UniProtKB/TrEMBL annotation:
Signal peptide (from-to): 1-29
Domain of life: Bacteria
Protein name: Carbohydrate-binding protein
Region (Disordered): 108-140
Keyword annotations of the record: Signal
Species assigned in the record: Amycolatopsis speibonae
Taxonomic lineage: Bacteria, Bacillati, Actinomycetota, Actinomycetes, Pseudonocardiales
Length: 406
């Protein structure tokens, strides 16, 4: 799953988005980052995903709080302005969109989940964790933008007594979309994850190679195309210790590799981000298998199809977002101990460099989070998606920022 903000001042993650010099900005910069929207214009909003197909086409999805329910939102940048688009109707008391993937301006896919309780709000992407105004989810929601309108794409409901969540989505064409979903039992705390493929007409379950008697549970999906697909998964031993794996689909068959971890840990390790780096290679980001990690640094390693090459440890015990920018540099986001505001760390090939959001975020909010990065094709820049929050979830602001696009 995508990372979730873990500090007490911020229990929901969000989305930060910014674009190139075409944007008219009223905000300030910090170490090259531009805040493209004043925070007072994004009050009560949370953005959970970011994607771009070019400097004149980018998307952010999330939800807005009406005072009694979450309502999903999807905003588009068309080269001139950001504007809400009209989503297809969703059933239930509320819903939000937690991820977005786009292969073209007329092929944009968003995933999320329905909520069942009115007057509540809960952390995203962590079904087993209670939080302020915790609510339940009944099933996933998937919608597609065809360049003109959003259409709801029907998905099977989870088994009776279980909640459904969308963990990750990657779209390559209108007839090829990959989804990782999870069914969660709130009574037992157990979950089962699935990899699915949209063929243009239906969702087909996809079996991934297994390892011994321990079933592999997929958690992330990404790639550059149907013949260069990456899936992160993990297998749990009888005592709950997780072992991470990376799987690659080349269009004909699967290849599986166990992900090397920095050290032994009693509960094991998980992969929470896979970042394609050209064809056939990828960065893998992971952490110890604990909620509220104990200060053990997150790891980043690169698989070139033959060998693993670990990167030096960064400052974060959990990396909440990771992606390449338009120039190929790797960006990560997380927190330092004792600080509720997110920091960025970029790898330039030889060393890590820390960066921060513009100071307006810290002046307005008690905490902040970045949940997504996205390169803007045709540029060397990066978009970052996140939010600011105070009083738990009593006050939220969507944050839209950019770096290297002016």
């Amino acid at each position: 799953m995508r990372g979730v903000a873990r500090r007490s001042t911020l229990t929901v993650s969000g989305l930060v988005l910014g674009l190139s010099g075409l944007l008219t900005s009223t905000a300030s910069a910090s170490e090259g980052w531009l805040l493209e929207q004043p925070l007072d214009s994004t009050a009560n909003r949370i953005y959970f995903g970011v994607a771009a197909t070019g400097a004149n086409d980018a998307w952010t999805v999330g939800s807005t709080w009406t005072g009694s329910a979450e309502v999903p939102v999807a905003l588009r940048w068309d080269g001139t302005k950001w504007a809400d688009t009209t989503l297809a109707p969703v059933s239930g008391a509320g819903a939000r969109l937690t991820d977005v993937s786009a292969s073209a301006p007329d092929n944009v896919w968003a995933s999320g989940d329905h909520t069942t309780e009115v007057g509540t709000r809960r952390p995203a992407r962590l079904p087993s964790t209670a939080g302020p105004r915790a609510a339940a989810s009944t099933s996933t929601v998937v919608q597609r933008w065809d360049g003109k309108v959003w259409t709801d794409i029907e998905r099977p409901k989870p088994p009776a007594g279980m909640d459904g969540f969308a963990a990750d989505i990657t779209a390559f064409s209108p007839s090829s979309v990959w989804l990782v979903s999870s069914d969660f039992d709130p009574k037992t705390g157990k979950s089962a994850s699935h990899l699915e493929h949209w063929t243009g007409k239906t969702w087909e379950p996809v079996e991934i190679p297994q390892t011994g008697a321990r079933p592999l549970q997929p958690s992330r999906v990404s790639g550059t195309g149907d013949d260069d697909l990456w899936v992160a998964a993990s297998a749990a031993s009888a005592d709950g210790k997780e072992t991470p794996f990376l799987l690659h689909w080349n269009g004909k068959g699967w290849r599986q590799a166990e992900v090397p971890v920095p050290s032994e840990h009693s509960t094991g390790w998980l992969v929470n981000h896979v970042v394609p780096d050209g064809r056939g290679s990828a960065y893998v980001v992971g952490r110890v298998n604990e909620w509220n990690a104990t200060g053990i640094p997150a790891f980043v390693t690169r698989w070139d199809g033959q060998t693993w090459r670990p990167l030096p440890s960064g400052p974060f015990d959990e990396i909440n977002a990771a992606a390449l920018d338009g120039s190929g540099k790797l960006w990560t986001a997380g927190w330092l101990p004792g600080d509720g505001h997110v920091l960025m760390n970029t790898w330039n090939g030889t060393e890590w460099r820390k960066d921060a959001l513009p100071p307006e975020v810290a002046k307005t909010a008690e905490g902040s989070s970045i949940l997504g990065f996205a390169a803007v094709p045709g540029t060397t820049g990066v978009l970052a998606a996140g939010l600011g929050s105070s009083g738990g979830l009593q006050s939220t602001w969507g944050v839209i920022a950019s770096s290297g696009l002016r």
